[in-house]
Amino acid sequence: MTEDIRTKKLINAPEDIITHALEGMISAHPDLLTIEGATGRAVVAKDGPRDGKVGIIIGGGSGHEPAFAGYVGRGLADAAAVGNVFASPSPEQIMDAARAADGGAGVMFLYGNYTGDVMNFDMAAEECEGMGIPTRSVQVTDDVASAPKGREDERRGIAGDFFVFKIAGAAAEHGRSLEDCYAAALHANDNCRSMGVALTACSMPQTGKLNFEIGHDEMEIGMGVHGEPGMRRGKLETADNVTDELMGAMLADMPLGAGDEVAVLVNGLGATGPLELYIIHRRVAQILGERGVKIHHSWVGEYCTSLEMAGASVTLLRLDDDLKLLLDTPCRTPALTVAGALEPKGTRSARHHAGEAASAAVDRATLKTEGSVTPAGFTAMMLAAADAIRANRDWLSELDGVIGDGDHGVTMDIGWTAVRKELAALGDATIAEISERMAKAFLDAVGASSGPLYASAFRAAGKAVSDRLNLDAAAMVAWVEGLCDGILSRGGASVGDKTMIDAWVPAVNAAKEALAKGADVKGCLEAATTGAKEGRDYTATIESKRGRSAKLGQRSIGHMDPGAASAHVMLEAFTKAAP
Prior knowledge:
With 579 residues, the protein is an alpha/beta fold.
């Protein structure tokens, strides 16, 4: 675990950081940006969306500023969906951005290739298509450190977002069709390579604790922008030696030679200033010059950060005539301006999108009433889980900091806090209705990967007991099994992948065995809790095969999966609170 060092941040309250930051961004750039939609998380260009133009929607977690909202403006993105720190925006937040950007020519989503982002943007894309809005999605995969050549689709998106977003926005600004904008973005992604180095850790605002350990004289080559461990850790070297290693990896993956032309981005991760970044660019230019490669344009500064992490990344975009044209197309955003004349604004018509369908009323007279778990008792169990997640928040985040991005406890706490608020406002409801409301509350509040997974879990669990008012032992086991089935259907993980499934599957199996032996509700939940604990502990012995920690390979062995740990925390709380 990380040493208990508390970091300093100029914030008011951790729960208000996104709202306050967005308010500050809008007040700083009132001529460029506004907020639209009920979620308050869609940053929209005032002079961007218009009739007949493909809507460009970007998005991702906060903590990477100026990405993502800083690239909203004329000639670049029409809107950005803003997630919590290091967490994908939720589908509803993305939909607010999509509704704002829809000009009748379709919309395109662009985001980094992370499990949570893919899940949430895919859910939003499904909703767009259902509303009759043609949609395409591009996952940026520029980080050569995160997967070998031949497995490019597994790579993370890091600072290469900058170039891919710029190309997509310019294509839309030129009036190209959705398919042509999609082709241009894919072409940019295929010709973009990045690699970074981290010198220090960063800290989540909610915990104030460093999310991983790194020695004062160490660096990590290939670290991701959420603090995901990289390719190797070693002693700090000179700027030239580090740049040689970064450039060597990129040029081995995307060879460049005499006559080639590139754009260069030297990006600071949050606490590395221009003085050092220009030293890195000096060496980048030398290496490219020695190969006869021409630099068309360079950007040096902070374009995709990782909170207060010290370090840098280098990105190369290999250019052809079309990419050069699109890169040079004028744009005006808070974080990037390319000079030149922009066409007149054009017309933006109000669009009316279908609202959410009302749920059907439940005839309680048809529901089964056997069982000790009433809706009130079920609600108490859920509130107990919310308390337990809050109590274990920092521990779960520390577990995640070792093999992931350090936000799991924070994310789960945000989700369960939203559930607590929803339950407090909920009147008389069945357990199935409570589960459905929990699903929406969790998903809208969280995003990330946990949002879609637990939204699907609560929804499936509620459907599994939709014929009941109260739950007996068999129904309680069915509800727990529904949780597991929902996670499996949305995430696609299997036992042995080192995910939360490694806790939920043995929990369900143990509960079923207890039920077969005649156990009551509490006995079945106790068995499920024991099964989850065994599964949780098992994850420390295996290599991760899914999610961000999969990039670690054998380095993930010896560390417990945080999702499996939180599953055990919840089941233990359900058990203690069960009647």
